[in-house]
Structure formats: C-alpha cells, structure tokens
Design goal:
By secondary structure, this protein is of the alpha+beta class. It has helices at residues 15-24, 30-36, 48-58, 96-101; strands spanning 110-115, 120-125, 130-135. Helix content is 25%, strand content 13%. Helix 1 crosses helix 3. 9% of the residues are buried.
C-alpha cells in the first residue's frame, strides 16, 4: 500500500486494509469510498461490483467462484442476442460481441451490400475475403 492517503495507483485494497479504509470514510458517498480504496477502472469509472464483492470477502463471507468475465464459474457471461435496432439518429449498431465472433479487427474496411429482397446487409472485406451476413 502507498502512503496514508490510499492505495498505490492500480492497487485495489483488500481484506483488513479495505475494511479499515472504508470504515474511516463511512461518512462519504459510496463512490468516493470506492475511489479512495482503489476501485477505479482505466477509464476512471468506479468499479462498484468489484468494490462490493471485495467488501463481502473482507468481511469473511464465502462467495461462489467467478470467471474473469465476472460471471459464476461455468457461466459464459453476457451472450450476443443477434438482435439490434435502429437508433433515433438513424444509426444501426453492430456491437463488438458480433465483430469479435467474426474475427474483425479495428481498421479493417468493408463494402456494404444491401439486399432489399431479403432485408439483408452483407459485409464484404475490401481485401477480398467474405465476412458473412448480418440480418437487417
């Protein structure tokens, strides 16, 4: 642990150190306590679930094993629904769960082919490879 002002950057307090720090700040809002205990992601977002989980563990309660994705062991976490909707601004978003399934990488370029008879959108890699079909 760093100086008396809190954990070192990137360090999340655990166990007795977490309980002591949280108790000392108990008159503050939850987000401030979590931040002071080091539960902040790379983007600056407070990691509430990790913070609360660490508090429960520090209090001595046993929790089921969890995967790196945060779900119970054996669970596959959040799954792609293969559904989307047109947003109010007219955009149609295909999220990273789908681009990951297709093996797409940032910076790759595609030609968009519209098939009005079937309501389909085809993405064709500009390097010549086919990337499959997205229902529209």
């Amino acid at each position: 642990m760093a100086s008396g002002n809190g954990p070192a950057p990137g360090e999340m307090l655990e166990g007795k150190a977490l309980l002591d720090r949280a108790r000392a700040l108990s008159n503050r809002p939850e987000d401030q306590i979590a931040r002071a205990c080091g539960y902040v992601g790379p983007s600056g977002r407070v990691l509430r679930k990790s913070f609360y989980r660490a508090l429960v563990l520090a209090k001595g309660y046993a929790l089921p094993e969890h995967t790196a994705a945060g779900g119970p062991a054996g669970s596959r976490g959040r799954q792609a629904e293969f559904r989307t909707r047109v947003h109010g601004n007219g955009n149609l978003l295909i999220g990273n769960a789908y681009t990951r399934l297709l093996g797409l990488e940032p910076g790759q370029e595609f030609r968009i082919e519209l098939h009005p008879e079937t309501g389909s959108i085809w993405l064709t890699r500009l390097d010549g490879g086919d990337c499959g079909e997205e229902a529209g």
